[in-house]
Automatic annotation (TrEMBL):
A Pfam family it matches: RepL
GO biological process, one term: DNA replication
Residues covered by the Plasmid replication protein RepL domain: 79-146
Protein known as: WGS project CAEQ00000000 data, annotated contig 1792
Amino acid sequence: MNSYNNEAINDAAEEAAAAVAQGLNTLLDRENEKPNGKGPVKTKVSTKVELDKEKSLKEGTKYFYGFSTNLLKLDLTPTEFKIIIHILETLKWGNVVAMTQKSIATKTNISPSVVNRNWKSLIEKNVLIADEDGSIYLNTNFFFIGLYAHMDAQRRKDFEKASGYNDNITHMHNSPGTQLP
């Protein structure tokens, strides 16, 4: 929506609020004229205008952002891609991978040894990033969920750990990110 429309909506809301306030004041003036022993009542009218925006996605639809600049440089196997898609299906803001290789193997019907081999490959390709505490993150310079500007402090910290870049991986965010070797 352009600024003209926002301005027009705000002006209309202010005019409506003023009309409501004037009407209430008239009623209250009449009420205040009655001898009931109470002091005058004043009005305060606030308005909140929310537009019912048309949404392009159905409610509850999961989606993610992906960066073709970096993805095109990867030589992903079909199994690696399937693992990534499964991770994206359960991923939360901040890109913390909160699942085990065993659970991935079970849910994707891929043998645990094949998941392990591909997991290591995804770490070598910096698609998955392990921090000093052993937490695993899906690199936000390939895929991510949630917008950095809308994240709380902890999720921003996780997002920055997950935003690994180097000479081969372009840093795609305004967040500080993490320089990889």
